[in-house]
Amino acid sequence: MGDALQRLRAIIADVSALGTAEAILSWDQETYMPPGGAEARARHRAALARLRHELFTAPEVGELLEQLREREGTDPDPEDLDAQYIRRARIHYERSTKLPARLVQELAHATSLAKDAWRAARQASDFSQFAPHLERLVALTIEKAEHLGYREHIYDALLDLYEPGMKTAEVERVFAGLKERLVPLVQQVAEAPQVDDGFLKEHFDPQAQWDFGMDVLRAIGFDLHRGRQDQSAHPFTTSFSHGDVRITTRIFPNDWASGFFSTLHEAGHALHAQGIPAELYDTPLVWGKSLGISESQSRLWENVVGRSRGFWEFWLPRLVQRFPGPLAGVDLDRFYRAINRVERTFIRTDADELTYNLHIFVRFDLERLLVTRQLDVRDLPGAWNAKMQEYLGIVPRNDAEGVLQDIHWSMGAIGYFPTYTLGNVLSVQYYEQAVREHPEIPDEIRHGKFDTLRIWTNQRIHRWGAIFNAAELTQRVTGGPLDSGPYIRYLEEKYREIYRL
Ligand code: ZN
What is the whole-number distance in angstroms between the Cα of residue 294 and the centre of ligand 1? Predict the structure, then answer.
């Protein structure tokens, strides 16, 4: 048995190394690769992906997992890392071998065509160019879900790929509570006098923006000996090992807040990645982490901490030093209200903290209708606009700012969107638990100190890698289930005060 585990570990170390090589190629493509490298890079990445898949789905891996069944047990102790290792390897092996090779190939082919078609369709703001591709992807996604299997709802099989163990009914329950309170709150805010954030759209020197972002990264504890920041068109985080975690940001001379809060968002993901113990890397114990848990860490730093008044008590004077021009005469109250301005807009990625979730409700509703064949792809633009009207009270003027705005569906990623809002909900549940255990945290934040909060998240959340799913971790950390209550109260208190409702 010891030999079987050793052999399994050797194979999986190679699988993981190939995955890391792919990730490095992908990071380079988004940051430094000249456009001329695209065609060859696509081939190189596909070759590594194929080798990784072949290595991991070889019959030998199945045989080793069979020999290790007894060692794994039925309900392994979370601290028994060998048993957890086998359990997670089995979950991924079964998932990888459940899908017929033909379906995997068809999906890869269809998504690569769909991504190009989506880009062209969005450019032309013409959904009809993308529709046949999306029809094909929906059909293949339904087939994929049938192969993966589910008990209650076909959407469960898809959700499980991004949010392990989560059920559609559970998301519906959490979202129903949110909708009931957030839709009217957004309506009330929209009718209140608007906050002025004009000074944030003045010119902010790009180099000074970068330098200020680096100051904050260092202060919150992003370890630059084990990480770095670069620039890319779409900010992201990727980790190659415990000792090498990369983030990217983008800087706009006339929109300081966009770049800064991207940096903080990715820094939250990066603290998570740097907090996962070295011995979990290159093992299935970090594969397929709950995206809701990951997003709880990025939203914690971006919004709960980064858009709080306390955070700026310390940082605003330092920001004013960097940008004395645009920020002359701006006091804490005016600044705090400006960075928390709420506006109903069409594009999800530009949305503020409050309206963001409403964009997710639109997508969650439509995805369930698509995979249950209750909505035809051809009718999607109309259905999209009706949902925008229902939740946000605004209707996009064209497909580009409506149904065509997100890349997710062109990648076949149906079931992904709900994890963003689950992350928002969890960010507040976890933060409130941290403050219950360490009431000094808010005061430390006011003084530019973040160690207590970072170490708490490290010990209670990061250290577990992918061992727990969102429900299990939340039970362990807070003693209760996923609960939208704290998040709703947080938003209501914050925005009633800002908009003087
Ligand atoms: Zn994120």
Answer: 7
Residues 264-286: pLDDT tens digits?
Answer: 999 999 999 999 999 999 999 99
CA angle 405, 343, 265 (to 5 degrees): 65
Cα of 326 to ligand 1 centre, how many Å? 29
Query: How far, in Å, CA of 74 to CA of 376, rounded?
Result: 42
Burial class (CB in 10 A: 0-12, 13-18, 19+), 218: exposed
Strand arrangement of the beta sheet that strand 227-231 belongs to = 227-231, 244-249, 237-241
**pLDDT at position 353 over 90:** yes
The answer to whether the beta carbons of residues 375 and 366 sit under 8 Å apart is yes
294: which 2 tokens?
A: 């990951």
Would you state the pLDDT for residue 109?
A: 87
CA distance 26 to 484: 35
Would you put residue 490 in left (φ > 0), alpha (ψ -120 to 50) or beta? Answer: alpha
Measured in angstroms, how far is the CA atom of residue 295 from the centroid of ligand 1?
A: 5
Which pLDDT score, from 0 to 100, does residue 42 have?
Answer: 85
Q: What value does the mean pLDDT of the chain take?
A: 96
Distances in Å between the alpha carbon of 500 and those of 194, 352, 363, 485, 487? 11, 18, 31, 22, 19
Q: For residue 293, what are its two tokens?
A: 């848990």
CA of 64 to the centre of ligand 1 (A): 36
Per-residue model confidence as pLDDT tens digits over 5-24: 999 999 999 999 999 999 99
The residues carrying an active-site annotation are 266
Among the listed residues 404, 425, 416, 421, the one whose alpha carbon sits nearest the alpha carbon of residue 371: 416
CA R_g for the chain = 23
Q: How far is the CA of 471 from the centre of ligand 1 (A)?
A: 19
Surrounding ion ligand 1 within 5 Å at CB are 298
Domains of the chain (ranges, CATH numbers): 2-149 (no CATH), 168-498 (1.10.1370.30)
Q: What is the pLDDT of residue 1?
A: 60
